[in-house]
Amino acid sequence: MDATGDPAGVGREHAEWFTAWVIQTRSTSTALRKYKALQQFFNYLVDSDEMDRRPMAKLSQPSTTERLVPIVTDDKLADLLGTCNGKTFRDRRDTIIRLLIDTGARLAEIANLALDDLDLSRDGVIVHGKGDRIRFIPFGDRCAQAISRYLPPRA
């Protein structure tokens, strides 16, 4: 855009510069999202006769690479669970970390659980995920035992 805020002054070089800047300051996945949003914005401007050309027409989108999520070793998990071995309320509460381990649910999904979301008869939990997606996730026997030991003192 020029100083008046008119997007008609945007050229390919501006889009290339912006994409390179986002890659350098953020990440390639962020750059790809912003690239697609800008592309749609300029397509809309052309379709609504606000612009007569598409500044990103032959500009290739940033390529992203899959990042591997680091895996926690069994020894580290055992150490983590070992810190919750006591009989105090706090120790029993902390064994809820098994829900994260067993279900693979997001932290926000587990943190936002209500008691009604637990289904101990089926050893599972109902989580409200991204985009209001609701799903049932089963968990293991040890997780069910930890939850059963935690609920009475919690009440």
Automatic annotation (TrEMBL):
Q: Where in this chain does the record put each Tyr recombinase domain? A: 67-155
Q: Name one Pfam family in it.
A: Phage_integrase
Alphabetic keyword roster: DNA recombination, DNA-binding
Can you say what this protein is called? Tyr recombinase domain-containing protein
Q: Which InterPro entries match?
A: DNA_brk_join_enz (IPR011010), Integrase-like_cat_sf (IPR013762), Integrase_catalytic (IPR002104), Integrase_recombinase_N (IPR010998)
Q: What SUPFAM superfamilies does the record tag this protein with?
A: DNA breaking-rejoining enzymes (SSF56349)
